[in-house]
Write a structure and sequence with these properties.
Maltoporin, Chain A, five-stranded mixed sheet, single chain, mainly beta, 22-stranded antiparallel β-barrel, 716 residues, 4 helices
């Protein structure tokens, strides 16, 4: 915490000392800080013009950090955290809100993730970053634009579009832990009015785990293939059609938890975390009417996922000849999911000629989404049948929504924005334990904001936004309790929670954005208070190695905080950046079942919600194409779960890179976590070690250790 306060105090005093003395600073090249256009909004806004707290990570930063996956850049944004419990950190929390895992039951995500208009929320292994133009992280409810999948915020990934001139590149990289990657892209005109782009990358790593029992160092490996294709057809002056295709094949191992809480495991049957996603999106844009632009978006995706692990984290014979002989068990747990999704959206956006009363811009749209997620779980049922078992479920959902947004100037300096969305949600759940449920409801959300331009450089805004997250079903918890003879009090407790309710959130936010010091300093500051109702929290019931998870509604929760982001072109050569986040959370009236006793967790901080985070550093341009980058990122401790009191340790990581960018060649030597810090990205609390007779204890999954490597690319 002392490091965080020192950075905040020094920086906040340092900026004003120069901000009011612009005449004494030499004027720099304005192009060094270019405008960044946000693609997640209905219209083209720069990051300094749109009310709301937004972080954007650009392509150059992705390259310099060697960010191959979304998990590698989340720590750069204030108040954004992630959880592993898988081969990647694919579960995201924004301002303390978001899921941390998925096992049996279907999950409606609190944080959405979209790649080129394709929704991959909840299946974030597909968040690879090859040939990505920028990653946009929107904090706070996005009820008007994205609806039910964006209660806490949204991650919007945009890949590069086809170029008007021919270009191509090949690249390759190597690193420690057996890491390597190779990729290529080609882009340019294919025919008159037709542009195309294709990008392919394969990356691989042995992972950061040594399996001492099997004598292998690749049981937690990464093997990831990404293929992107884009076509842009300029049919005529009024109509254009964009086609995007995505293929992601993730074939990763999963062997991350150790009975000894080290990077050395004892598993005799290591697991896997695989995902194969095929997706197509078509966007048609028609400008033939002088009053509005019409955009039709349709996409389809199919994802097959397999997630499994060695449930005992050990091998047969662990206890032979020791006091725990006869106590050990051996089993695996495997989840095979098939997710089909279809989406269609029509949107009308006003032109200057179509403004209401000549002054009010408007947007109106209709949205339809249908999703079918089927599950087959293969596991060893050692508490009922003492045999291999199979469980299946199917979860179908439909969302139909209408949305609209109005932007009107109240005065020369003041602008009012009103946005709203109404949504009908229907679902149908059934499983092989004869549990059936069909939650359905009407939902609404939106945003009201006021923007005031103090001068040509500074915009102050205030907003109130409402987000929502649909309810769901605890089919696994109820079915397992009833079929396996759990204690009557536990069974009754879970049966009352077969269906859980919709969570809603009101976000109150004040912010200031501006460009100063002759446009060499960009500053964005936001403070917020979020009032959560019917908070959906994950609870666990466990008896030694037996555990079952369920989602319950707490009465309420509060999340408040502060966010600062700045980019300062201090000299022609030196660019500085500071990103700070402070967060305070609380949950009220959340009851969990611990050893058949009800425990009230009211007043405690929410899980995966660190009190502070920071990312500070600089980039130096040495000239002649050479550059260096050094940054430090840090995070306060946080609770691993809402149902137990185990916490992570706070940590700071140092990252660095040195490279060359020429007309054709680009070289980059990079390193992350230079001091080889051990830090946790997921934690559990239960008993799984027969040598300790299954006494409850903390188990953690570690983030990446010190990793380093070099990349080279050639641009034609």
């Amino acid at each position: 915490m002392n490091n965080f306060l020192a950075i905040a105090i020094v920086y906040l005093f340092l900026i004003p000392s120069g901000a009011f003395a612009e005449a004494s600073k030499p004027k720099l090249d304005h192009s060094l800080l270019r405008e960044i256009i946000i693609t997640a909004s209905f219209r083209d806004f720069t990051i300094l013009d749109l009310p709301g707290s937004i972080s954007i990570v650009e392509q150059n930063t992705l390259h310099e950090r060697n960010a191959q996956h979304i998990e590698a850049i989340l720590n750069t944004a204030p108040n954004v955290n992630f959880a592993s419990g898988a081969s990647r950190g694919r579960y995201i929390q924004i301002r303390g809100i978001g899921e941390r895992s998925q096992f049996v039951d279907p999950v409606n995500p609190s944080v959405g993730m979209v790649i080129d208009d394709i929704d991959i929320s909840g299946i974030g292994n597909a968040g690879t970053l090859f040939d990505v133009r920028q990653v946009e992280i929107l904090r706070g409810p996005q009820g008007t634009r994205f609806g039910a999948n964006a209660l806490a915020g949204m991650v919007n990934i945009r890949s590069n579009n086809p170029s008007e001139k021919f270009e191509a590149s090949v690249n390759s990289g190597y690193g420690n832990y057996g890491a390597w990657n190779v990729g290529a892209l080609v882009s340019g005109p294919l025919a008159d009015g037709l542009l195309g782009r294709i990008a392919v990358q394969q990356q691989s790593s042995d992972g950061f785990i040594d399996n001492s029992f099997l004598g292998r160092d690749n049981t937690n490996n990464r093997d990831e293939l990404t293929m992107r294709g884009k076509l842009k057809w300029l049919v005529n002056d009024e109509l254009s059609i964009d086609l995007m295709s995505l293929y992601v094949d993730i074939d990763n191992g999963y062997d991350a938890f150790s009975l000894n809480n080290t990077r050395h495991t004892l598993s005799d049957q290591p697991g896997q975390d695989t995902q194969e996603t095929v997706a197509i999106a078509i966007t048609s844009t028609w400008t033939g009417h002088n009053a509005f632009e019409l955009k039709a978006i349709t996409n389809w995706s199919d994802s097959n996922l397999e997630y499994g692990y060695d449930e005992d984290w050990s091998f047969v014979g662990l206890c032979t000849g020791t006091p725990c002989d006869g106590w050990e068990y051996s089993s695996t747990d495997n989840y095979l999911r098939d997710r089909d999704s279809n989406r269609f959206e029509i949107r009308l956006t006003s032109t200057e000629a179509g403004r209401i009363a000549g002054r009010t811009d408007w947007v109106a749209g209709i949205y339809f989404d249908r999703r079918d997620e089927s599950l087959e779980r293969q596991f060893f049922d050692f508490d009922r049948f003492i045999a291999d078992a199979r469980f299946t479920s199917d979860y179908e959902t439909e969302n139909i929504a209408l949305y609209s947004e109005l932007i009107t100037p109240v005065s020369e300096r003041l602008t009012l924005t009103l946005g709203g969305r109404i949504e009908r949600f229907e679902s149908d759940y059934k499983d092989s334990r004869a549990v059936n449920a069909s939650p359905d409801e009407d939902l609404w959300g939106g945003q009201v904001s006021l923007e005031y331009n103090l001068d040509n450089n500074t915009m102050v805004y205030g907003l109130i936004s409402r987000g929502y997250k649909t309810g769901g079903v605890n089919g696994e918890a109820v079915g397992r309790a009833e079929s396996n003879g759990f204690a009557p009090t536990v069974t009754s407790f879970l049966r009352e929670r077969l269906e859980f309710d919709t969570e809603t959130l009101l976000n109150y936010e004040l912010g200031i954005k501006g460009s100063y010091l002759d446009d060499t300093l960009q500053l964005r500051v936001a403070t917020f208070f979020m009032d959560r109702k019917d908070v959906q929290l994950k609870g666990w019931y466990n008896e030694g190695p037996l555990f079952v998870g369920y989602i319950d509604n707490a009465a309420s929760g509060e999340n408040m905080g502060f966010e600062l982001e700045s980019l300062w072109q201090f000299t022609e050569q030196l660019q500085l950046f500071v990103n700070l986040g402070w967060l305070d959370t609380e949950v009220d009236n959340f009851i969990v079942n611990v050893n058949s006793a009800l425990v009230d967790k009211s007043g405690r901080e929410q899980a995966h919600a660190p009190n502070h985070q920071f990312n500070v550093g600089g980039r130096y341009n040495f000239g002649r194409g050479f550059y260096g980058r050094l940054e430090v990122e840090g995070k306060d401790s946080f609770y691993f779960s809402d149902s137990h009191d185990q916490q992570s340790d706070s940590y700071e990581l140092i990252n660095a890179s040195f490279g060359y960018q020429g007309r054709h060649w680009a070289l980059n030597v990079w390193a992350r976590n230079l001091t080889d810090e051990d830090y946790a990205t997921r934690g559990f609390y239960f008993g799984n070690d027969p040598r300790k007779f299954y006494v409850n204890e903390e188990y953690v999954q570690y983030g990446e250790p010190r990793v380093f490597g070099a990349n080279a690319s050639y641009h034609f």
